[in-house]
Amino acid sequence: MMKTLITAVFLAFFASVSFGQTADDVVNAYIKAIGGMEKINSIKSAKVSGKFSAGSMDINFTRLYKRPGKMKMEMQIQGMTMIQATDGTSAWMLNPFQGAREPEKMSELDAKSLNNNADLESKIVNYSEKGGKAEFIGKEDMEGTEVNKVKLTDKDGDVSYFFFDTQSGLLLKQSTKRKIGEKEVATDFIYGNYKSVDGFLFPFSVEINAPDSPMGASQKAVIETLTLNVPTEDTDYVMPEKK
After folding, report:
1. Highest mean pLDDT among 26-30, 54-58, 113-117
2. Residues near 150 by Cβ (< 8 Å), separated by ≥ 6?
3. What is the mean pLDDT of residues 40-48?
4. How many CA atoms lie within 13 A of 11 on its CB side?
């Protein structure tokens, strides 16, 4: 009896040590799946181009990235160009659809959202260096696919949930919530069609479910090209002086 009890306790302890999963286990599997940390660190800049669909609108866009934390997006709509950019500290935009002829600084809320999307590989990578905390929630079923769910709390206290395929390690979905005025707005990003570019795996399809978005609840971005380590300067992301 005593021998059986000791064996059971030992096996339970061994199972918890061997098979207990952490957020870092899941994030590290994702990093390995998309090419590894060495590959990610070798990417100093990138350019993404494609089409963004919202309702009946099809919008051509380009995104330019530069480490650390710089990003610039241009969207061509009806012959006009809308720009959103961050130099890693402050963010700005030029929106001719609101009658703006000169670039303007973004609101704190919009700047935060843009800065959160300035990492090509997702903000979950190196989350602790960015002041965030991650927690492994457990496994779930996502439309027939088993996923690992990780909760990320960033340095500002905002929470996002990340869902990773337990087999491939790839990120399949990200759910975020942010407060706009008195209202909490939820957005889901669903990633698919991963392709390898110079050894870096990147989703070439992103579906966006945003029920409260003025652009419509269902949106989609289809990536046409991804080019790594493109020529770009810090000045490309700085707000131009007003004329």
Report:
1. 26-30
2. 23, 26, 27, 124, 134, 135, 136, 137, 161, 162, 163, 164
3. 97
4. 6
Which tens digit of pLDDT belongs to each residue from 175-220?
987 766 667 778 899 999 999 999 999 999 999 987 665 555 678 9
**Residue 55 carries which side chain, given as an amino acid letter?**
G
Least Cα distance to 25 among 138, 143, 190 occurs for 138
DSSP conformation letters of 183-198: EEEEEEEEEEEEEEET
Q: How many CB atoms lie within 10 A of CB 215?
A: 14
Residue 79 has pLDDT above 90, yes or no: no
Name the architecture of domain 22-237.
Clam (2.50)
Are 205 and 45 in contact, with CB atoms under 8 Å apart? Answer: no
pLDDT in tens, 58-72: 889 999 999 999 999
Question: Domain boundaries in the chain?
Answer: 22-237
DSSP category for residue 234: G
